[in-house]
Amino acid sequence: MVRILLGLIVLSTLGCSNKSGECASVFFGGEIVNPTSDYVVLYRDDAYIDSVKLDDNNRFSFTLQGIDEGLYHFDHAPELQYIYLQEGDSLLARLNTVEFDESLVFSGKGSEVNNFLVEMFLTYENEEPQIYSYYALDPDSFSKKIDSLRAIKINHLNELVADNQLSDRALNMAKASIDYNSYISKEKYPFYHKRKTGEETIHDLTGSFYGYRKNIDLNNRDLTYFRPYFDFMKWHFGNISYMTCLKDCGGDQEAVSDRLHFNKHKLYLVDSLVAEKEIRDILFRNIAVDYLLKEHNPSQECQVFIDKFHTLSSNEEHKEEIDQLYKGIKHLQPNNVLPDFNLKDADNQNISLKEIVGRKKNTVIYFWTATQKKHFRDVTLHVAELKKKHPHYNFVGISLKTSYPQWKVLVEEYKLDKNNQFHGENFKEIQMAMIIDKINKCVITKDTVIVDAFADLYTSL
């Protein structure tokens, strides 16, 4: 998601709970091994709170007064991680950027819920292959498997609560980290079951399969920027939009396959069921981005959809972003001149994209990031094979969301061709110019003219 800074949060003293009337301070500090940036930046939702520079020992600290209890996140570019803060916390974090999430450990007052959130994130990440294998099962068997995995985590949470005193809001956040990840698997089931088995998608599931839906809160302000909650909302509205369309549009599969038609259903359902302003707006934005990135081709239908989005969204920054996205898509059509921007080469010199692609007639531009190491390794091997199969193409790699020193280390370590590897410093500029919408996206050019700006590195060649 493109981060839009909403401005400084006012640290109000109205919420102070101690009898003296003074706000209990919150201390958050720590140490970062192998730092990839000079700074740690703290946010509440999408709003900037404060930033501090690492000292000579790679340590940092924040002292905050009168903050609202809830979910925050800290950035150490290019990584970010959630942190739950409340009055009186004195929290230390230690992490190694080589294995950012896996190495992150909290200590001190407030550490219990934070370590639990990290543990749940890693647990669900490790369970993904196992859960994917379950999608071939019938609905009852699948549901029992997911419920069993959830029960193990709930028992773990109960043990945590027995040994530690959590506030009601902290407990709700910890439980949400379990519930919404589990619910996502069930919302995915009809789609993934068909993908795994070839059987007709079983959307109209009966009994207790979707029993959790009666307990979900579609307007939970505390969870607005919590990734499991937001991902659940995306899958949930996709699922019920599919069913609504089949029911109300005469069971016509063709209608469901029509992107404009289907995404109008999603906009309508969000408008009907979600009242919380910020949740509405980020869901509207997500639907619009998803529609435009899958459509790729400018049309009157696209403009109709954008006009509808403008009438529903109350977020002016989102509206501007969607307009810029559509403008970028129009600029990336075949036979247009490739957008231009500066990159850094191995000598830390600026070089324009047009200068790079102008060296050879046929160029394939692909993207990678140090934050997704498996993808980086996979794509490096794949490009090596493509070079053998397509010697008439020049393959150019652009690294994003990676610090320049880290990029140089990886280029050296993997013995990449320095003449064809470049560092992208301004992620937002490059993302919007090249419409980087998927992990294996590539752009094929002839001279500096676009052949296919929405190609896939694994299928388009």
Structural overview:
It is a single chain. The chain has 14 helices and 15 strands. The protein has 461 residues and is α+β, with helices and mostly antiparallel strands. A hairpin with a 2-residue loop joins strand 5 and strand 6. The longest helix is centred in the middle third of the chain and has 30 residues, at 168-197.
Secondary-structure-derived class: alpha+beta
Percentage beta strand:
15-25%
Number of contiguous helices: 14
Indicate the percent of residues in helices: 40-55%
Main beta-sheet strand count, sense and barrel state: 5 strands, mixed
Stretches with pLDDT under 50, minimum 5 residues: 1-21
Round the mean pLDDT to the nearest integer and report it: 89
N→C terminal distance: 28 Å
Q: Compute the gyration radius: what is it?
A: 24 Å
Helix-strand topology string:
EEEEEEEHEHHHHHHHHHEEHEHEHEHEE
How many β-strands, per DSSP?
15
Largest beta sheet: strand ordering: 13-12-11-14-15
Shape estimate: globular
